[in-house]
Amino acid sequence: MCLIEPEAGEPPFKFLDDDDVRHNLRHGVIPTRPRSMNDDEWELVLAMTDSDPTKRVSLERVIAEMKRLAEQTAMAVQAAITCSACSSEVATDSWFCPQCGTEVNTASLRTNPQSLHVDIPVPELLEALRRGRISDQEQALVLLLEKCLDETQRKEIIETDGVDVLICAVETSSSHFVQICALSCLRWISVVDSRFSTGDLKALEEFVHDATSDECTSMMNDLRNGQEEEKLKAIVYCSGIAAAKTTQILANSSILALFVELLTKCNKRLTVWVVEAIGHLADNDDTRVVIANEGAIKPLIELLHSGSSAEKGLAAYTLGRLACDNEENSLAIEAGGAISYLAELLVANTNVEKMFAPYALTFLPASGISVDTGEYYRPSWAASRRQQRAEGTRSGYVELVLKSEADAWVIVKQGAIPLLVASLLSTEELKTSATATLSSLSTIESICSVLAEEGAIAPLVHLLDTGNDEQKRNAASALANIAVNSSSNCEEIVEDGGMDLLVEILQNGTGELLENAVFVVSCIAGCGRRYSSAIGVGPLLKHARKVIKQEGGIKVLKALSRRGTSYQKRTAAETLSILDRSCHPMKKRARHGKTRKSYAQW
């Protein structure tokens, strides 16, 4: 406490008696850090006041550290120079005169340039994070985050045991900034490269507390008035907090407006992190509305067109977040010409672009528009011509449908389908983004044949077995649309082992995954009647029946026909009737059960 009083100008806990002070310390409650206290001094305070007595530093260590700090202060005083305005002494590590506030414009007064040099090798930065002081660690993490924008340098972080160093920083650092930025580095490695599991990332987030009001106030001050380095630290800090924690303190209108203002006014080094921060903050509809109303959509679309690879990828991510569950934003993004730019990103050279472009396209266009059936939600291109003929739509909705189909073909003509299919065999995040986009594209009847020709069926079937829940739902949705009225596509699904996997889903699946699986089985069972003259259809139907019967599928279908949702009941009953060869021809009907992904958390 003797370290805090000179800095704060008053005794800490001055209104509490000794017993209450001891109670606070036993429970980890310590005074707020004075703004004038440097990182090394505050680190010593934390080490002295740990709530676990066994973890507190020894008296000998305290004395040695206080001597070192005193010597450091003495050296700074000796090196002090005179302010040009008022002749007061100014320490070499100060940016402003402590008496009159005049900014010191001498380059020698700035932080050591070498300590902030962007070309410092990754191993040296990791060593600084491993062994350096808190201030060294914070500087090292800002630079490591900037290196995460480059695929080669991210790979170097991974290959030089950087993941373990970052994990240790999250788990053991006393600096909230260090914890947040280390998490942000790990998030890049997890989301973009799939080299760190999302489950482990979520577990590490539990080590980090949410932002306090004091921390938010300090960030706002640096965002408004700080120099470039201070602004950069505040931006990545805010972005990391928003990604790691759901916080209402950060998502107020003044912070959101400030970030949108920075989007058009800050330099290129800061822009990419401003874009990321806006994307992370857009985690609910209230913030999406505020961000859009502040004018963020237009500059984000401009970055899609003319930004760096990282700016393009993160702009796609942020636009996807703004469009999620928000029809007005979705239509504004589409009207701004984003779809053609996003289609170009699908064939880009970096994972950041290829992953986030499908994510944004998942929500475009018109992510909130639905058909008048009230049965299921149809974002993206879900209103295909098949659904219009089967169910009917309003005239205004038909106009949007035609525009949406044209937008879908922009993606196809860009040559994106082969790359999306290849992504089904790539990283987990690329698989998820690719299946979502293929699910959307498959609702356009004329595109289904392109998907089949480009080899999408086999990897989609494989994901029914190996994918996570989201990938399975998206894959089943795409297969349901591809299978409609195509005996050759149905046959390929069966030949690739799809029937066994679909029956397994009938037994164990739930929700949209189950509904789509029932629909695919229904399509396969029905194609034998509709295409009885086609070569190979007879054995196909025979095999389908055999698998359904042997694996208990008949029993499951009967149960669904009695106790499922209205759609499940109807489709299960139709499937059973088809298998008995006693049903009417099935209506043409596409299912779109794509699942949305929220990236607070990319």
From TrEMBL:
Entry superkingdom: Eukaryota
Name the record gives this protein: Uncharacterized protein
Transmembrane portions of the chain: none
PROSITE patterns given in the database record: ARM_REPEAT
ARM repeats mapped onto the chain: 295-337, 455-498
Pfam family, one: Arm
Organism name: Phytophthora nicotianae
SUPFAM superfamilies: ARM repeat
